[in-house]
Design goal:
192 residues, alpha+beta, three-stranded antiparallel beta sheet
């Protein structure tokens, strides 16, 4: 009987131990699940932070690139502005250059050498000053093919020869450019 009781107690204990073990296992599993869930949540929080950091880094890089483009553009605009800042003054001086050219043409018809020399000196001084400021003559000559991007056609006349059809017959007024920008187109006559 004692043996049966011991066995009964042992079997009760085993059952109780099994139940306790089962409870411990369940608790352990729950704890592990909670820890895994916390780890998953932590990973997702970490992943979220990594994604946020990547987004902010991308925004920063785009903003930086945009700023660099802005700097380049403003530097280029400033250089262009300096090149053409005196454009109005130079434009106002172009009729004076034309008048000097006409005066020299008329003075060469006379025999007044000192007058011609004096006018030529003043003309050269004015031209050299304007050319030093960036003024250039647009090179268009009689016989060249007409290009509307570089010359302004005033009129068309019948071509004196077949070679001058569609080409420049005469240059009435010189053209000038300041830097790369044409500020006055040459006025030409073209042959038909």
């Amino acid at each position: 009987m004692k043996f049966k009781n011991i066995f009964k107690n042992t079997s009760n204990m085993t059952t109780e131990n099994t139940e306790i073990d089962q409870e411990l296992d369940d608790t352990t599993l729950e704890n592990n699940a909670n820890e895994e869930q916390i780890i998953v949540e932590e990973l997702s929080v970490e992943e979220q932070l990594v994604q946020d950091l990547a987004k902010e880094k991308d925004k920063y890089l785009r903003l930086f690139a945009e700023f660099e483009n802005y700097k380049r553009r403003t530097v280029k605009e400033r250089i262009e502005l300096f090149k053409t800042a005196n454009q109005e003054v130079v434009l106002a001086m172009l009729p004076v250059l034309d008048d000097f050219d006409r005066a020299i043409t008329e003075i060469t018809k006379t025999d007044d050498g000192p007058l011609l020399k004096g006018v030529e000196l003043i003309n050269e001084k004015l031209k050299s000053t304007l050319f030093a400021k960036g003024l250039e003559v647009v090179d268009v000559n009689a016989g060249d093919a007409f290009n509307a991007d570089f010359a302004e056609a005033i009129t068309q006349i019948p071509a004196p020869t077949d070679k001058l059809k569609g080409k420049i017959v005469d240059v009435l007024e010189k053209g000038y450019k300041l830097g790369d920008k044409i500020i006055r187109f040459p006025k030409v006559v073209i042959g038909q």
